[in-house]
């Protein structure tokens, strides 16, 4: 799984993803991360990559040519046209299902915009997916690209220590995760639920599943509609 991030701020991407689980996955060559500096592909002697918008208005627009030239360098290297994700608040809202689908791709290109946007013509030419990470506006696409890479990369086999944890966590079957506890048994007068220390795995699983149902019903009832619930689940929620 190779991530190629087209950006005006390559260091932000490299620094941001070089730690913890993703950093280790890069080190272990389970994934690779490359930041392509769009400025390197400017044809302007001052390395300029933006200009005023036609029709007027505030801010600057990233020009088509440097963006396209950096894209072409990736296509040339890969020998094929990869999937290109453009980060924009106008895109489809990112979720775990999209992450799962994208985690199957061998190569993914992320295009990060800045200023007031990117010349529409180059977007038409190269972008395959437009994704938003939520209904709010950031100053650029770098943080959204990092959010997406973190989410997708942890689904790549071997990136997490235990592959099961990606399966049972929040949003698996559209349910939120159950609460977790570690030592000590009592903290600030609060005790760890008895069942978790029983050593009875079936009871632990049952309790956790019920906690997931309770949490989802309370915090994100909208998700419950998408979950496939058994007859027992429905009875439990109605009890
Ligand atoms: N760029 C600016 N805001 C964004 C958002 N919410 N999602 C993706 N890209 C963005």
Q: What name goes with the CATH superfamily of the largest domain?
A: SPOUT methyltransferase, trefoil knot domain
- Distinct bound molecules: adenine
CATH class of the largest domain equals Alpha Beta
Task: Provide the succession of SSEs.
Answer: EHHEEEHEHEHEHHEEHHH
Number of helices: 10
Q: What would the principal axes of the Cα set say about the shape?
A: elongated
Summarize the main sheet. Answer: 5 strands, parallel
- Give me the Rg, rounded: 22 Å
Percentage of residues in strands: 15-25%
**Number of structural domains:** 2
For the record, the CATH architecture of the largest domain stands as: 3-Layer(aba) Sandwich
The third-level CATH topology of the largest domain is: Alpha/beta knot
Task: Specify the helix fraction band.
Answer: 25-40%
Low-confidence stretches: none
Quick tags:
EC 2.1.1.228; 239 residues; alpha/beta; 2 domains; transferase; binds adenine
């Amino acid at each position: 799984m190779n991530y190629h991030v087209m950006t005006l701020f390559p260091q932000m991407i490299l620094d941001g993803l070089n730690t913890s689980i993703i950093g280790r996955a890069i080190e272990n060559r389970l994934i690779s991360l490359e930041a392509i500096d769009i400025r390197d592909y400017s044809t302007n002697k001052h390395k300029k990559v933006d200009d005023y918008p036609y029709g007027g208005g505030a801010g600057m627009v990233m020009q088509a040519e440097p963006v396209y030239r950096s894209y072409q360098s990736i296509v040339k290297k890969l020998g094929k046209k990869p999937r290109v994700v453009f980060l924009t608040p106008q895109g489809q809202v990112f979720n775990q299902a999209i992450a799962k689908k994208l985690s199957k791709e061998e190569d993914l290109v992320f295009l990060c915009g800045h200023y007031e946007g990117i010349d529409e013509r180059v977007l038409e030419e190269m972008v395959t997916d437009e994704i938003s990470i939520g209904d709010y506006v950031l100053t650029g696409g770098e943080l959204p690209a990092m959010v997406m890479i973190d989410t997708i990369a942890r689904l790549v086999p071997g990136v997490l220590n235990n592959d099961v944890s990606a399966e049972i966590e929040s949003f698996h079957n559209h349910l939120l995760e159950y609460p977790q506890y570690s030592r000590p048994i009592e903290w600030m007068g609060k005790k760890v639920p008895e069942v978790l220390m029983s050593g009875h795995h079936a009871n632990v699983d049952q309790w956790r599943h019920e906690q997931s149902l309770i949490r989802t019903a309370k915090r994100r009832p909208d998700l419950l509609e998408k979950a496939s619930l058994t007859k027992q689940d429905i009875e439990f929620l109605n009890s």
